Amino acid sequence: xxxxxxxxxxxxxxxxxxxxxxxxxxxxxxxxxxxxxxxxxxxxxxxxxxxxxxxxxxxxxxxxxxxxxxxxxxxxxxxxxxxxxxxxxxxxxxxxxxxxxxxxxxxxxxxxxxxxxxxxxxxxxxxxxxxxxxxxxxxxxxxxxxxxxxxxxxxxxxxxxxxxxxxxxxxxxxxxxxxxxxxxxxxxxxxxxxxxxxxxxxxxxxxxxxxxxxxxxxxxxxxxxxxxxxxxxxxxxxxxxxxxxxxxxxxxxxxxxx
Length: 258
Fold this sequence. Notes:
The structure is a single chain. This protein is an alpha/beta fold. It contains eight helices and 13 strands. Helices cover 35% and strands 25% of the residues. The longest helix has 19 residues, at 239-257.
C-alpha cells in the first residue's frame, strides 16, 4: 500500500448558510467581525481543530489549505492551531465564489499522489480516516461512503452515490437511485486534476464542482467506494447540522467517561 503523507483541506468558501445565522447573532452582540466557518465553535473548540487532530492521528505530515474568503484572517487564525511537526501551506483561490472543484484545482501542481482530500466543515471518526487509508487503491479516486441511509441528518441535502459492485456509477444531490452517501473524505490520484479541467471546460461559466469531476471519472470506471461501516461523520452546513453534531458528540463523550 502506498503511504499517504499529504492532505488537502478545502476551506475557501464563506459558509453562507451557517453565516446567515451567525451574522444575525453578531449584530445583536454589536460585533462586526467577518464570519469564518472553519473556526466556528463546536464544544468550545474550533471546527477545523477536529479535522487537524484526525489527520495527525493518521500520520499526515503535510497539509495544504485552500483558502479564499477572508484569506488573510483565516490564515492567521489557522496558523495558531497547527500542531508541531506538521508542515503546512496555504493556497489562494481567487475564484472562491465558484464551486469547490475550482478550489481543488488551485492545488494542482502543489501536491503529490496519492493525497487525502477533505473539507474544513466535515467531522469524522478517527477510525473512519484510518479505514480509508488502509483500503484505498492508489490508481483510482477513492470515496469514503456511508450506506447507513437511515442515519443521515438532512438526507435531501446529502450528496448521493450510486454504486455497482466495487465501482461508483453515479453521484449527485438529486440522484434518484442511490445506495450510499458521499462523506466528503477522499483519497485522490493526480488524475483528478485532469478531470476537473475537463469539467471546467465543459461549463460555460468555467466553473465546476468536485462532484462534476467524480461523475466524469465514474464514467471511466475510475471511482471506488469505501464503506465507512459503523463510523460516524457529519457535515456542518446549517445551524441545525451544527446543533445535531454537538448533541451527538456530547452523548459520545458522556458514554466514554462512564
